[in-house]
Specification:
mainly alpha, Four Helix Bundle (Hemerythrin (Met), subunit A), 10 helices, 61% helix, extended
């Protein structure tokens, strides 16, 4: 294996590292090629040799990817700006939460997450998916010559599911409360713009079921009309499904903006009483000086995100005796 090239004087540390990585990558490439080709002949490798060769090949690929990323990085790109722009790039143009300061986002994090959770997306999506499946089953039965008595129980179950999804998307009645901060108003605005069309689509589907399909099923000779109405219902539920996915993405954006603080400057943030568990950060995130050691102790590496840490529990400076 050839010796890695030495960096020339006058290069910055990053350039030195790039040169060394590139040289190591090239040398490792030669070693892997020689080992796998057995110097031009058919390889006759024992198990330990084969394992080592495959390991070297995997390292070679990983190192090549890292080197390529470093060498193609735009010159002069600052880490802080890169991570901030990465978060901003996830937001649609003109999104109400674009450009919001990190100290504000973390201050109201608890309330923003509670607002997003109140839309019930976790239960809404599987319930709505179940309603669509039942509708397709009803259409299949109505296409047969003798749907029998199976249709009515399915329609009754469908009506119950639609009541559930309507309830999940209904917003609580406004009560007299102090005016919400501008940031939390923006959070609600970003969700309501998708929640209201979804609620209308679900209301229309439920109304079609109650006022047209159910009365038709009472009449024994209305199978053809029932099938047509059920197909209309399936179309309404398809539209509701699309709108529910829009709301789901809006909820995911609020959760991301409320938890992603990679590369952010939080030195001016007031963290006392703030919900911190679940916050993502990295080495370029700056915390208030007195909070940084507490946050480091409470954090663990994020899965599949090298260099990113997640606060696993609320930071605390309380020490628990070992004999308790």
């Amino acid at each position: 294996m050839s010796q890695p090239a030495r960096a020339t004087s006058g290069q910055c540390p990053d350039q030195n590292l790039d040169v060394l990585l590139a040289a190591a990558h090239s040398s490792l490439c030669d070693a892997v090629h020689d080992r796998l080709s057995a110097q031009g002949g058919p390889p006759e490798l024992r198990d330990p040799d084969l394992v080592l060769s495959r390991t070297l090949a995997a390292v070679h690929r990983a190192l090549g990817t890292s080197v390529s990323q470093r060498l193609t990085r735009p010159a002069g790109l600052e880490h802080e700006g890169a991570f901030t722009s990465h978060l901003e790039s996830r937001l649609p143009p003109g999104h109400p939460l674009s450009g919001r300061l990190a100290p504000v986002r973390i201050k109201y994090r608890r309330h923003a997450l509670q607002t997003a959770q109140s839309y019930g997306i976790k239960d809404l999506m599987p319930t709505l998916a179940g309603a669509r499946r039942i509708t397709e089953n009803v259409i299949g039965l109505l296409e047969t010559e003798n749907p029998g008595t199976q249709v009515r129980p399915l329609v009754k179950h469908l009506e119950k599911l639609l009541e559930q999804v309507e309830h999940l998307t209904e917003r609580p009645r406004a009560t007299t409360k102090p005016t919400a901060p501008d940031y939390l108003c923006a959070v609600k605005e970003s969700l309501e713009v998708h929640a209201q069309p979804l609620l209308r689509a679900l209301h229309n589907a439920h109304q079609l079921l109650r006022e047209e399909l159910v009365p038709m099923l009472v009449e024994p000779d209305s199978a053809i009309d029932s099938e047509m109405v059920t197909r209309d219902l399936a179309d309404d539920l398809e539209q509701a499904w699309v709108k529910a996915n829009d709301l789901s993405r809006a909820v995911a954006i609020v959760q991301t903006v409320s938890s992603d603080f990679v590369g952010e400057d939080l030195r001016q943030a007031k963290l006392e009483g703030t919900l911190l568990a679940g916050v993502r950060w990295n080495a370029t995130t700056t915390w208030p000086e007195e909070w940084e050691p507490l946050i480091r102790r409470a954090s663990m590496p994020a899965e599949k995100e090298p260099g990113v840490l997640v606060i696993a529990a609320e930071p605390s400076n309380t020490k628990v005796p070992a004999d308790t």
